Structures are given as structure tokens and as C-alpha cells.
Protein 1
Amino acid sequence: MKKKIIILPGDGIGKEVTASGKKVLEQIAECFGDEFIFDYATIGHEAIEATGNPLPDETLVKLRNCDAILFGAVGHPKYDNDPGAKVRPEQGLLAIRKALGLFANLRPVTLHPALVDVSTLKPEVLKGTDIMVVRELTGGIYFGEKTRTATSASDLCTYTVEEIERVTRVAGQLARQRRKQLVSVDKANVLETSRLWRSVVERVMKAEFPDVQLEHILVDAAAMHLIRRPSSFDVIVTENMFGDILTDEASMLAGSLGMLPSASLGTHRTEHGIFGFYEPIHGSAPDIAGQDKANPVAAILSGALLLRYSLGLTQEAAAIESAVEQTIATGYRTEDLHEAGAKVVGTQEMGRQIIAALTKVLA
């Protein structure tokens, strides 16, 4: 049965890394006999330049009529240097999350053994690190009412019981499938939204996941413990902004932002699985865009998550993950992972090496 995948390359290195992701998915289709239909749509700076809208209506129509989405990145220096711009590329991404109900952002943080020396942390601290961060994606300060005057500004942070309940259930289910340990991160000593967050998480976990061990940690302590004892974490659930910041920090455990994929899921199901939006956690990196320097691994691994969650193709997903592991173990690196003795290659060559490893995995 044919499965439709929309690719949103976006801005900067988004075009390069999604191109590599698409090639790996095409190789999977050839090896396994799957049928993927690919289509493209615009978002971000490119969409603003063409239509004045960071999320054009025609893009949203396409997204509502597919099985899954593979996204690159949004962002452009033009807007970084103009904080007063009313239309910004990032608005397109936020609008997609809200319009498609993508409330749970899954960010796996896995350390590849061959990259233990790339991280700035000691190998003995990193050993055994395997974390799944579940970030609430459609509430909190990013979506709250915003005001700005000549002398002040405000961003309202709000959460409802329903928003907290549904993301807690996602995290609880994942924890139950893993090591049955869940850490909920908040700032309940200061924020009223965090006090609500803590009480709802506590209630849901006790009633629905009594077999999962629950721990509450303040966000500043969580930031410290991620560096001090990362292997002690199993599943982390937290609100929107905290999750954004903590997962960028956690990327250093894996050696680079270029290594971490993500999946944004909601409640909508297609005939194949859960409808989802898949993206590397890195940004558009305009300073290296078009130079064949970007690390495509996060985009390629996002494709693996797409296969697993939205298309139900677990064997294909595992094959991609194994191919990435073997490529890294063989010594191939992009510039962000440079280390002595490594085979430093560009974006396209890294993709080709992963495809070569894929054919060996499936031989």
C-alpha cells in the first residue's frame, strides 16, 4: 500500500539534510518493497518570500492529506537581526504544531559508543546514557498571549489540565515500555503552572501507571543532573520551553545537535499508524548552509522514527538505526563530530555511507 510523505525542507541546511533523509527512505523502499510517495511544500523564510506567510494555506492542505511529514529547519539571519519583525519563519512551525494537534514531542538521546570521546563529558559519566524526553509542544509560554509596549513586554504561560494529562499518558506509556522510570521536570517552587503540572502528573501516574516509578525534579536541578549523571534518566516529561532547552543541552551528551532526531505526535491516526511530524532538533545553521557541511544523521534518524511511529515499519526503522551505528563505528564523521583519526566527510557523502551500510545490514 502506498504511503504519502510530505517533505518540508525549510530554510538553511534543512534542504541538505532532508535530501539525505529522502535518499535513505528511497533505499529502504527499494530494499523492502515499500511504496512511498514523496511530495514537497514550503515553510519558513522561503514561504514568507514567496507568499508573505510562513505557513501558506496550500502547505497546510498538503499536510492534512498525508501519512507523515519529514521537516528540515526554519530560520534566517534576516529575522535574527530584526527582533521586531511581526512575521517570522518560526511562526510557521508553531502554527503546524497547533493546527495538526501535535502535542507530544519525543526526543531520544542515545549515545553511540564510538562517539564517547566526542562529548566534553568523561566517558565514565556518559556510559549507559539512553534517555527519551517527552516535551509538551502546543502549550506554555510559546503559545501564550504576548504584549509589547515601549517600556515593557510580557509572554503569558498557560496550561490546562487536559494538556498535561495527555502528554503525561504518552510519557507513561513510553516509560512502561522501557525501564519504568519517569522524571517529571517543572519549576513548582516558583511557577503556578508548574504546581498544576506536578499535581496532574502525580494523579495520572498513580491512577494509570502505578507500575512506573515517578520522580519530580526542578528544572534547574534537572539541567545539572543531565550533565552530572545522565545515565540515571530513563524517560523525562516536561513542558514546552523547559523541554526545548533541556534537549539542546542533552544533545551534547550525544556529541552534537546533528545527532538527535525527534517525533511530534498527536491523537490523529492514519491507516498505517500515528500521524506525525519528524525533524532533527537542530536549527537552520545559515552559517554553513549550502556548503555540504551539515550533519544529516538527525534527519536520517528522524526518518527512522517516521517509519516506526507513523507507518508501522519497525523492521525498516531498525535497519536505518543499525546502518547509522555502523557508519559511525567505521569512523565516518561530519565536521561537527570531528576528532583525531576520524574520516571527516560532507553531508552528501555521509548519507551515501549510511546507504552503503544499509545495504550491508540487509544483505
Protein 2
Amino acid sequence: MSRTDAEPAQAPPGLMIVVVGPSGAGKDTLMAIAAQHFDGRSDVQFVRRAITRDTDAGGEAHLAISDADFDALATAGGFAVSWEAHGLKYGIPADVHDSLRQGHLVIANGSRSALPHFQKAFPALTVVNITARPEVLAERLQARGRESREDILRRLARGGLDVRGDFDVVTIDNSGDIDDAGRAIVAALERALAARA
């Protein structure tokens, strides 16, 4: 049985924070702001995900891994959580459990579709949902030049922007000034640290 499927006997003293949100919401930017704020804190860990894409593909700093190596690592229990989305495989390293056992705050970039897996793997879990108004998301995504504004708005309307399910959720609207949203994510993590103290 993999660690993802195992039922933990009791919640560890640490807390897993999984950051989710639609494309264009600014997750990577806000996580980078938070990581800089907490730099040097041994009790706050930002997870480097394993992803089956090249290191220079852009976006977050990640561990680039081949499909075969990813599958081998997953079989060996190397991931606390793993999932597939948009033709890629994503994995959260299993060693995050060690940090949680030490009472640390662990922050990982996740996906709304993978939240049931996170919930199963981490009894103490908070979801930080980064979002923005649909027209703001559409403008940001249109600037990437991959879809028309109309196609983007239709896709956003179908997918919704909320987290569905029985989760402890903190929602941060990143429609405006990035500094405001940056302060909001830092404050949310500070509150989480204070609650675990």
C-alpha cells in the first residue's frame, strides 16, 4: 500500500498548505513572495514538486523528471501525493511527512482536481485558493497568446473558480495589486503558524 493510500493513525503536529487556483491567478508569483518573506525560517518549508516537463519550461522552479522515472518513484512510495493534469504528472515528495512530524508548516503548489488526494494523505490540511475576477484572468491568459478571449471566458465559466468539497479554505483575490495579494498570503500563513503554536 502506498503512503497516499495509507490511513494515518493520527494527525501530525504540522500543517500542510496546498495552494490552488486557475491559470493566470498568480499562484507562482504569490508563493515566491511568501517564500521570500519566510526565508530562513526552518519551520516553514516550500515544496519543490516533481513534474514531467523540462526545467526551462517556465513557471515554478521544479524537479524535472522523465515519465519512466516518475512512475518508478511513485511505485517505490517516493511521493506523498501524485496526480496527472494537462498531459503532465505532478508529485509531492514523500519526505514532507518528516517535516510535518516535526511540526512544520509545509506549503505546496497543488491542483483543485488533486485535493481529494491531498485530503487523504494529510489529515491536517488547509487550502489556499488564489483567484481573480474572470475578466482579469481572461486578460492575463489572452496575453499568453494561446486562446481567444471568448474561448478563455467560456472555459472559465465551465470550470468555476471556487474550491468544491469539505476543505478548510482561505481564498485570496489577486485581481488587483500584487502587493496586496502578497500581504494576504503572508498573513494567511502567519495565522496558520500562530494556530499551530
Protein 3
Amino acid sequence: MRRGALENLTNLRTAVERVVISRTSIEIELAEGMVSEDQNRIQIVPWTPPSPYRRREIILGTDDQSPAVRPMKTKARGLFIDALRDAHRWLDELIGNADQTIEALAMREGQTERWIRRTMSLAFLSPPLIQAGVEGRLPRGLGVKRLMDLPLIWADQWATLGLREPVKA
């Protein structure tokens, strides 16, 4: 921590005597010497805690009118993240080492060559599609197997999945 930050922290600790957090407010009681005669020692700030339930904006399909689309399952999200990691790792190995082959990767990983090729296709997904998958914002039913073997053109990936491509800000 920098010296100035330490001094500010020390000043703050001497200025505040007590902080009480309740369901609807935060009460900050200032130390005796920190307030003048006409000021209150206790400052009350209205506050409500944030919801523990994160609201996700699910990417809707092109034909979906209903906002009741459910997000992808947590297990499917985890499998997608693991497969995406493997895809990038294997692609880097193939690019970085001229002697590396898909056959050798398949033997080392205990997978078929077809599985390695299909998994590596995830490395070519549209970045917004990857981000939505990592954040769990894809609709339920879009797991690793549905995301493999999509066209290389990003707009076509969205159309093949029947999803609306996000609007660029």
C-alpha cells in the first residue's frame, strides 16, 4: 500500500468512531473532535443491500417473443468453459509446434480425432457468443455439442443457432 493511502486510511479510522449497517440504512458515527458544534455526530445514509440473485439477460432467439426463456444450466456452462479452454490450448499447441498432430493430441488426451477437431471448432466462435456462454446468458439447450461445428462466419453462427446477434453499441 502506498504511503498516502496508508495516511488516508489512518485519518479515516480516527475520524469514524463506529459504523452500523442495518437493512435500510448505514449509520456513521463520527469521532468527538471531527464535528463542529452545529453538526450531528451521526450521519444516516439510506441503503438497501444488493440482491444475492444475479439477473442475467438471456440472448433471445429470432422467433422468441416470450421473456420467460431460461438460461443455460450451470453444468452446461462449466462444460462449455472447459471445452473452450481445451480448444484454445490444443490450437495453440498445433500452431506453436510443427511436429504436433491431431492424432498425437487425441492419443494423449484419450479422445478420438473427431472429438479433438469438433472441440477445436469452439476456438472460432464469435466473441460475443463466447462471452454469453461464459456468463451463462445463452438459452437452455445450447451446450457444447450444439456450439461445435458451426459455420466460421460469425453472423452465420448466430443464424444457425436461431439467435439474434447482439446490437453493437
